[in-house]
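Limitations

Structures in this collection are predictions, not experimental determinations, and the ligand pose is part of the prediction. Treat each record accordingly. The example that follows, with zinc ion as the small molecule, is included so readers can see exactly what is and is not provided: the inputs are given verbatim, and the output is the predicted complex.
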Amino acid sequence: MSDDKPDAPANAGYDEWADALAEGGYYVECANGHGSLPPRRVCPECGSRELSAAPLPETGEVATFSEVHVAPSGFGEEPPYVTAIAEFGAVRLTGIVRGPSDRDIEVGAPVRADVADNEATGDRLVVFRPV
Amino acid sequence: MTGVRVAGVGLTPFGEHAGRTGRDLFAEAALSALDDAGVPSEDVEHLNYGNFMGALAERQGHQAPIMAEAAGLGCAATRYEEACASAGVAVREAVRAVRSGEADVLVAGGQERMTNLSTAEVTESLAVAADELFEVRAGVTFPGAYALMARAYFEAYGGSREDLAEIAVKNHANAVPNEYAQYQREITVERALDSPEVASPLHLFDACPITDGASAVVLVSEEYATERNLDAPVAITGTGQGGDRAALQDRAHMARTPAAADAAAEAYADAGVAADAVEVAEVHDCFTIAEVLATESLGLFEPGEGIGAARRGDTARDGDVPVNLSGGLKAKGHPVGATGGSQIAEMTRLLRGDHPNSDAVTDATVGVTHNAGGTVASAVVHVLEVAR
Ligand SMILES: [Zn+2]
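Predicted complex:
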């Protein structure tokens, strides 16, 4: 039971991946160069089981975003907040835009990926910081 | 392979049914479907039941046997869950059961109870259809996910909020005479544009409402219909299902829904029809942008052309291919787990001639239904034809 081992990851693979975003981050790369995110045993694009970790590009580019005005109950972030999908080379990430200019975000804007704590849920929160 | 006929259809009115249980809603729809079919309940061999969030909304799992009991069906029952496509899958599996010779008579449909929850609770419950790790934790809501797709579409092909508002206006107008619709009232483009923003670029009038309701259809083999001399002129001649990566971030193209295109290709091939044979469509417009993505995936429009269809009048009741004559999810309502069955019921009524909007499609013999789950990680398409 997780109650007995408070330090054990709740979602092994994902938790370590999210934590690593604080130091640049990584993604899963298959033998054929397809990108995906953990936990992963097999490449969802080609079925290759030869997977390794590759460093996430330092900056990504916003592909689409939305300013969300109605949040799920219990979700810590106070609406309105900006959720975006950003491209980091072979993978895209979904996160919340945080920073002085989060309301002025545009498609194509460069962002850096980072991780924060969602204090309401106790979950890790992927955040994008405009650069 | 035996043909499949829609022997009867049943719906509750869609809307707010304060205080009514899910089982009571489903029983109403199932009993009216059986009455419409003229099929005795003891002939029903299986119930295929769609439901998405009953474990959250009513704290009731294991709903299928409860629904069979409520509807007075003595048969076994199975619940299907593919988010908003749950009932579409339930219908598809019933079609396959008849075709395989396993069964001659099934009831398929679904039910959802939603208005007993607060908006925040519904938002939380619907978000369960998204990827928990990679989307929900990043604040992706159901409207938020379609907003991300809408902006990606605008970036790729152009389009405007006005184009989306025209879709809402059309579907509201279609719902006016539909006695089962949640909103039997017209809206204007101006009013849609001025409604509050829910998740940019989508506003409140781009979104379907929160709805209670149930749907049921009685599906029978052609042989059974002939033997019993049933009046069942509408056949389900094609069925298809497609899948995709669950999270929007992992899709090849965020402004297209290949799962629906795959489902359509399979359903068209199954029925032996081409996209240009489709004369009327009921599609999954949980948000206005979803109708655009649906009609393009069905091959009714090229990618980038669907956005202007309502503005041009192509999808209007007097257009080339009327879309969502029922009012669609937008105005008829979207009791999530019931919607796929409701589309079959509405298309059957449209083709049989007993729908209040049948006068818009008096000569139509080929209709298509499109039911999508989540941001279209699941899609089910059916072709319905008037058997002659
Ligand atoms: Zn690969």
